[in-house]
Design goal:
Growth Hormone, Chain: A; 2 domains; 383 residues; 17 helices; mainly alpha
C-alpha cells in the first residue's frame, strides 16, 4: 500500500511539461494548478478519522487508492486549467485520507509485531515514488500517449491495492491496543496538546525535506556557482539518505529507542547543515543536505507512531492532526525561507534547517519509545 501510494502520483510528474504544453499554460498557471493538491489535502484530511471509524483503515486505504487513481486519470484528460486544478485538488484530498488510513493500519501491524517496522513502510513509500518517477520518465521517453500511460498505471496500481486489501488485518482498528488505564476522554485536553507537539516535530521534518527540494539546487547554483548537473545533488543526497535511513531505521529504533534515535537525529541534522553553512562550498553543502536527510529519516514515522499511541482520542485523530500539521509545514516552509532569503540571504534562510534540528532535539523527549502500545507509554511531561 505504501509503495503504491508513493508510485501513483509520482508517475505523472515527468509528464507535467507535456500537460503544460497541451493546455498552453504559463509557469504561474501550472504552479497554481498543482498547488490545489495540498489545498485539497488540508481540507479533506480532517475527515479521515470519521471514514476510518466507519469503514476501517484497510478498506479506506484500498478504496482511497482507487479514487486517487481516478483523479490522476482526470489530470491526464483535463481540458482546461480549471479542470486540471480540480483534478489535483481531488488527488490531494484522496492522498491525505490514504495517508492517515495506511499509517493507522501500518501501526496496527506494528503492534502485532511488537517491534518497530513503520520506518520501513515509509522507506518503501520513497522507493515507490522513485519507481513511479522512473515509469513516468520511460513513458515520456518512448512517447507513450499520456492518457494511455496514466490509465494503465491507474488500473495496475488499483489492482495492486485491492489484492493487498485481501491480506490486511480484519476487525476494528483498536483490536491490538491494550485497554486504556483511564476513562476515554478524561485527559483529552492533555492528549490534544501532546499530539500538537508531535505535529510540530513532523513539521520540522517537512521543513528539512522541503529545504532540500525547494532550495538546495537554488543555493548551490546561485550562491556557490555549481553547474546544473551538480546543483540537483543536494536533493538527491537528502532523499537517498532519508530512504536508506528509513529502511535501516527500524533496527536502530529497536536497539536504541525511538526517542534517542530522533533526538540524536536532530543533533545530526543541525550539525550537518550547520557545518555546511559555516564553511560554504559545493561538496560540503551536498554532504550537509545528505546528513540532514539521514538525521530526520525516522522523525515523521516516530511522530505518527507516538500520536497513534496517545490515549483518550478516537482512532485516527492523532494521526490526522500530525498529518495535517505536516502538510502545513510543507506549505509554509518554502515561502518562509524565501522571505528570509530576500531580506538577508539564502544562506541565512537555510539556517531554518539548523533551528528545526535543534527543536527536534528539544521536543523529541515526549515521543513514545516502544513499538507496542503499553510497552513504553507516551510521556505526558514536558520535553
Amino acid at each position: 500500500m505504501f509503495l503504491t501510494n508513493g508510485a501513483l502520483p509520482a508517475t505523472v510528474v515527468p509528464r507535467l511539461p507535456e500537460i503544460k504544453a497541451a493546455l498552453a499554460l504559463n509557469n504561474t498557471e501550472l504552479g497554481t494548478a498543482i498547488a490545489a493538491m495540498p489545498l485539497g489535502a488540508l481540507l479533506a484530511g480532517l475527515f479521515a478519522p470519521a471514514l476510518i471509524s466507519r469503514l476501517r483503515s484497510a478498506r479506506v486505504a484500498a478504496l482511497g487508492m482507487a479514487v486517487l487513481a481516478a483523479t490522476l486519470v482526470g489530470v491526464a484528460f483535463a481540458p482546461s486549467w480549471f479542470a486540471l486544478a480540480a483534478a489535483w485538488f481531488a488527488a490531494g484530498a484522496a492522498d491525505s485520507i490514504i495517508d492517515v488510513a495506511q499509517n493507522t493500519h501500518g501501526l496496527r501491524v506494528q503492534r502485532r509485531y511488537g517491534r518497530s517496522i513503520v520506518n520501513s513502510f515509509h522507506g518503501l513509500w520513497s522507493v515507490g515514488a522513485v519507481a513511479g518517477g522512473l515509469l513516468g520518465s520511460f513513458a515520456a521517453g518512448t512517447r507513450l500517449p499520456l492518457t494511455v500511460h496514466v490509465i494503465a498505471a491507474a488500473v495496475f496500481f488499483t489492482a495492486v491495492a485491492f489484492v493487498c486489501y485481501r491480506f490486511m488485518l480484519p476487525g476494528h482498528d483498536d483490536t491490538e491496543r491494550e485497554p486504556a488505564s483511564h476513562p476515554p476522554g478524561r485527559r483529552s485536553g492533555a492528549a490534544i496538546r501532546l499530539v500538537l507537539v508531535f505535529g510540530v516535530l513532523a513539521a520540522c521534518g517537512a521543513l528539512v525535506e522541503d529545504a532540500g527540494s525547494s532550495w538546495g539546487a537554488v543555493y548551490l547554483s546561485g550562491s556557490l556557482g555549481a553547474g546544473g548537473a551538480v546543483a540537483g545533488l543536494a536533493f538527491v543526497g537528502l532523499q537517498s539518505a532519508m530512504t536508506v535511513g528509513r529502511l535501516a531505521g527500524d533496527r536502530v529504533t529497536d536497539r536504541f529507542g525511538q526517542r534517542r534515535v530522533v533526538r540524536v537525529g536532530g543533533v545530526v541534522t543541525a550539525a550537518g547543515l550547520g557545518f555546511a553553512l559555516a564553511f560554504p562550498a559545493v561538496w560540503t553543502t551536498i554532504a550537509g543536505f545528505t546528513v540532514a536527510g539521514l538525521g530526520v529519516a525516522t522523525l515523521v514515522p516516530a511522530a505518527m507512531h507516538s500520536a497513534d499511541e496517545v490515549r483518550g482520542l478516537p482512532p485516527g485523530v492523532g494521526l490526522t492532526v500530525v498529518s495535517w500539521l505536516l502538510r502545513i509545514g510543507s506549505l509554509v516552509s518554502p515561502p518562509l525561507v524565501g522571505v528570509v532569503a530576500d531580506a538577508a540571504s539564502l544562506r541565512v534562510g537555510l539556517l531554518g534547517v539548523v533551528v528545526a534540528g535543534l527543536v527536534v532535539t528539544w521536543l523529541g523527549g515526549v515521543l513514545a519509545n516502544g513499538a507496542r502500545a503499553g510497552a513504553d507509554s507516551t510521556s505526558s511531561s514536558g520535553p
